[in-house]
Every structure is written in C-alpha cells, then in structure tokens.
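### Sample
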Amino acid sequence: MFVQNVMAPLLGSQHIDAGIRVLVPREFLESVEKNVLCQRPAWRIEAAKVNTNCDHALLLSDHSVFPHSIVKGEPCISVEIKPKCGFLPFSRFIAEGNAIKKSVTRFRMHQILKLHQQEIAQISEYEPLDLFSGSKEKIHKAVKALFTTPQNNFRVFLNGSLIYGGLGGGTDSTSFMVGEAFEDVLKCVIQAEVGMRMESFLHLVSETVSKSGVLDRLLEVQKLDIFDIEGAIHAYYDIVSEPCTVCRDLGEDIASHRYTSLHSIPSDESLKIVRDYLIAATAKDCSLMISFAPRKDGDSASPYSNVYLASTDQSFDYKV
C-alpha cells in the first residue's frame, strides 16, 4: 500500500514495482533464508535473517531482464545502482557539533565508519552529489567510481545472472583480472574492440542516467526531508504524545531557545514533518535498475525508450 499509494505517485508508476502479495509456506521461507545467509558477509548476516513466521511475501518482477529478450533469446544487460542521498542537509535544527553534515555527504561519512569497523577494505571513490548533479561529466565520474569500488552499490547482470559486483557488499574494488573478465563478457552486447568495451558500457550507463531524468524525480522526493532527523525527532515525540528525550538531554535553556517553534506547531503539521521525513528516507535507500537490450537496425516499433551509444554506433532499448 505504501509503495503503490505514496511512492508511485511521487516517482512515477512506471518506475515503481509495488509487488504482489502471495501466500507462502514456512518451508519456503526457511529455504530462502538458508540460501541468502550463505551469500552474505558476516557483518550483514543479522540483517539478512528471514521472519519464517510470516505467511505472506511480496512477489516482485525480475527487473534485470526485458520480457521480450527472454523469449527471443537476445542479450540483455542490466545495472543496479544504489544512488544514496543526493544532497547535503540544510536544516537550521542541525546542532553545531554536527555541522559536518552540511558539507560532507552521509555516504562519505558512512564509508569512513565502515572502514574503521573493518566492514570494508577501502573507501569508495563514489560521491553521490556527482550522480545527482545533472552534469554529464560528473555523472560519468560517479558511474566510473561505482564501477571501480562497487561494494554493494553497483551490480551488473547479463540475462538475469550477476556478472559483476558483490551480493552482500564484499566486493571492494575492481582488480585487473576482474576487469579483464568483465570486458570479455561484454562482447555479446557492446560492439567494440577489446579494451574499449568496458569504457563504452560505462558511457552507456552514464548517458542513460542523464537522459532518463529519473534521478531528478528521486532527488525531489529525498528533499522532502527539510528538517533533518534533528528536527523531525521533535515532531515525532509530539505525535506520540511523549516527553521529548532530546530536549530533556539538552537541558531546558538550550531546548527552549532552539526547539520551541517545533513543539508549538499544530499536530497536523507535526504529522506532515514526520511523514515527509519517512518518505524521503525511503527515497534515500532505494535501488535503481536500468536494463538494456541492443536495438536492431530498422526496429522502430519498440515500446521502450532508447539511447544511442556514439562510441559503438549502437542504439539500445532501455527501461528504468
């Protein structure tokens, strides 16, 4: 209901899959958990556990393929990108001690924390602000950085099978051998000489991200968070009619000076602040799937959008 009635109107129903609720037996869920856990790194096992007491699950379409590609046996290559938050918070309720949030993206700060906690071997070169910038040059820079240090933020699928990137965040960087193997796999999709396919593919992804405009809509939804968590938390306590523990911990003088306005607004405004914060948080944590299928010469009847790759003189159908 949330995806269909809230996120779909904001992002466009063509970009959203609300899924279908289906009845599932406990044995099926136990089997899913068993198969998932063995593919997750140790530090993400807890998050991968399945609630086997549920009797329903969401059935989602496989967005790594074009339906017609499966039928016709044509190659289909897809990219999954986790873009993260694409703007710096600007809320006046951000405390002075947390002012770094206004100049360094949440993703970059998390990278340093993950490195410190030994969850990753190196910091990603990816900067979300580049991907959301609207600049073709910066978008391409961001895509190349995601490819270089994919972690669990960049994956590539060929005909529905994972060929690049980690299942659980274990892939830190692209080695020469991995890059060479990936280059070879691309030959069925990208018509370029050896050594040029990977770069052409990354240009294809960058061009499509720019042309589709989907990140512009995503950024608009992310920016519904205008108060930041440091402001929204006060509205939350008013909604649930509980004493604000943040104000209590800060002390009456500081809290009264900074947050009185938030605790004085009508309940419907408090509800809107929390609602918009949660919607924005969902948009900050989504995945973007882009699927490509080479378009044959003279094929103008395709229902999909198309993008032209100048370096190989190829046209591709794509869906986001």
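Residues 98 and 230 are 10 Å apart (CA to CA). This sample (Inositol-pentakisphosphate 2-kinase) is used throughout the tutorial notebook.
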